[in-house]
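Question: Send over one sample?
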Amino acid sequence: MAHCSSDPSGKLHRSDTSSVLISGSPGNVDQAMKPVLFEIFGEIWNVQARLGQGVSASVYRVSSGRASTAAVKEFQADSQGGDYGYHKERSVLEDIQGHKNIVTLYGVFTNHSHAGVATRCLLLELLDVSVSELLVRVNAQSQAAVPQGGGSLPQGHSMWLVQHCARDVLEALAFLHREGYVHADLKPRNVLWSADDECFKLIDFGLSFKEGNQDVKYIQTDGYRAPEAERQNALAQAGLEVEGDCSAAVDLWSLGIILLEMYSGIKLKDTVRTPEWKCNSAVIVDHIFASNSVMCPAIPVYHLRDLIKSMLHNDPKHRGTAEAALLNPFFSIPFAPHIEDLVLLPSPVLRLLNLIDDSHLHNEEEYEDILEDMKEECQKYGSVVSLLIPKENPGKGQVFVEYANAGDSKEAQRLLTGRTFDGKFVVATFYPLSAYKRGYLYQTVQ
């Protein structure tokens, strides 16, 4: 079935690798075309779902007999035997491993199908929801909150989430650019949340190149393509000589568009094609910020606006660097997550609401009984590391359950939501592991 060409990193079979790459649910997949299993490093891994399919590769969620989960990126067989896409992405990933905001490569292998076709594969860390999905979900929530017959403007993400994503991606880009690489395909679908590491990570380095040694003419995705890449692509399409002078600045442009979409809730693909945008994007950015009704103090909004505008200069020399962007005052302002953030972003910690009355908290015997009952119930869904029910504010009466990994907490959240406990409907959200570990419990969340 498969022949190993390198060993996994050793992190693969940790119990905390059970996050999900793009979405937890399989799409409409032609099951006849989907492989049933892969033999990887001498072990059988079952294919649970196809998570994505592109021109040159497909991505699958796979699970082993030990309940470990991972992602397999299988490249289509190269008729000329070159396997260029596979070798390129593998070499880039192997060169940049070790940063917390870049997807982990566990190993590589060759898969031999029953038809005798050999395909090259990458075994990767399995991540969770993409920024693209987060935007769709938060807009679905805002639409659901509108009375029937009423309309609503698109709703962007909270400042906490925008800041979290911006910092994580800039940290990844700063590292990538120091190593001499340009990602060259930054877009919402290539920025994914890691439930266990509690951060966003970059994926898909198929168009990446060493700065000054660009080996592909067409880079970046429509809607997130920097002006200089647009010009370069147009020259290549016209059959003219292309020097390939795109630099790391193209990644800053893409991130500026991503952050503007996250803040506004508006897809900007059509906007960035207009003459008005090409003539003076800063005016449109100002208009978006002026018309967005996000309830947030003005100063951090101004800092975010100026950060985004600094990334969207038409002249790449004026965009600055990822390291410089991290020094923007926007990152010095603390924000608390909204309730929507805690629903959307999985973590190993669950927060259960609408369960405990004050009377339960002040009767010691009853309190201990509730602790035992809650722990017994929560252990049905996975390994419980700790359980906390604060008797005083902040967090008074809320139940915090720390699971051994995010996979268990996601299963618990799915099965506990809507259940009744002592006649009350359970409300289950995730909760930031780092805040829980520090004892930082939000009394109220916007």
